[in-house]
## 1
Amino acid sequence: MERARRRWWAELAWLGGAREVVDERVLISTERDRVVAVEPGSDPPPDARRLRGLLLPGLANTHSHAFHRALRSRTQAGAGDFWSWRERMYALAGRIDPDAYLALARATYAEMALAGVAAVGEFHYLHHPPGGGRYADPNAMGSALLQAAAEAGVRITLLDTCYLQADADGTPLEGVQRRFGDGDAAAWAERVERLAPAAATADGALLGAAVHSVRAVPPGAMAAVAAWAARRGAPLHLHLSEQRRENQACLAATGRTPARLAADCGVLGERTTVVHATHPGGGDVELLGASGTTACLCPTTERDLADGIGPARRLAEAGCPLALGSDSHAVVDLFEEARAVELDERLASGRRGHHRSVDLLRAATGGGMRSLGWDAGAIEPGRLADLVSLRLDSPRLAGAPREDLLAAVVFAATAADVADLVVGGRQVVADGQHLLVEDVSAALAQAISPLSDPG
Ligand SMILES: [Zn+2]
């Protein structure tokens, strides 16, 4: 990869991290994949690449299931709830092999790059052939995801997911769910260990762990996955309290809320991210906050699936860093996720102003990067050189007030406003064009069409 010393210049930049304001005329020097200097108030030197509009740290899409991209526009209309949607998702899951997965994930990650995403957290549980058994390479599906991200120019944290049972009462996996299961936590760890060398040598890849949910992993196995992640210092994610039914099933099976059970199994902590946290039970918000666990909200998916509105403000106040994910990819737009966190809480509470714009952008950048184990999310010397620029002359942002550009970005920008993306010092998107995947729309259409639901 071409990663020499480079200089980049932007008229306006929010540098992320602790910065509260937009800096002007910012010169950024990078060497290989890192930022080495940041100099606001600089004239653009002739050798610097100009990035148009407003520069931000590259975005983190903290929660993704790449294969769900093939459900877009097929499951949004009509009636039902999360559980009826899941049946459609399972039907798709039964049709994907490693080659189809590579094509679909590569196109999906390329769509993310066009939306300004520098790193994705892929919550990966589609491990084995339909009906069970093993591929010749038992990590054929995970390897396809690593390759897809590399080809799309996006960094990936592959959150290899343990998924062992159909419900908290120990109901065995059946039907397409058998693709997800390794049998037990030891077999899960053995398979993941075989993936570790490939992930370690891949450029821009990191291996993490996930517990699918308290429904899908019994307490002893949750503790084993948590211990594996702790030994490796790896990120650990789990779906938590997305549905009230999960809380009820967990209480019935264990006498504890999902968060309490996760805490007792050693799952919570500063390396851990809970996804959704839409329906935390009594005391759960305080438990999550005190442990420093990140809460990853996925509001465009949560609203699509009629999940509910999570208590983002209370979670943040309790001490949970926030992160954002497009999850089912009903849309891939981190600006939409960011504003939905605030706007959904307005609808639920009848009050405005739960989150500051700068904090929502932190969730989309530094909060997510930290959750995924990357030293990124702020444009600072020493950190990974991830830069995204937004056109300020788009119809959405034209006329935005200079003194409150961050609010304009949160409340009006869309993924379509992304002009340039630099990931680890390498330009991946220039002027709205992906430089590695020639025609992202065609790649998506070609990958999705053979997977379409025949019924
Ligand atoms: Zn998910």
## 2
Amino acid sequence: MRPIRVGLIVVALAGLAGCGEDEPLQAVTLVGTEMAFAPADVSIASGTVVLRLRNEGRGFHEVAVEQQGRALGRTSAPPGRSAVLELDLEPGRYELACREPGHYESGMRGTLRVER
Ligand SMILES: [Cu+2]
């Protein structure tokens, strides 16, 4: 059933993007494993972003979008599952982090650059 679910998500996002919003809806998929995000460094335009975490690891992972140590949003998924986080972001540099104990310190982090 998994390919069908992915297809439905893509259709849903395309539908939202075509609803007459001024800003395009951006979708980014991060694959989480032990102990990394792929891609680790992401650049997007400002506006609404749908961040999808696909956990392909063996343990529980999360992704938090942080700025100056403050989490603006977070989502988490058990192994083999995905989770979605939608955020409106101003231009700037944000950090991606998994705050499961020890994961960030082991390299499960990245950067999110939001351009104008
Ligand atoms: Cu993790």
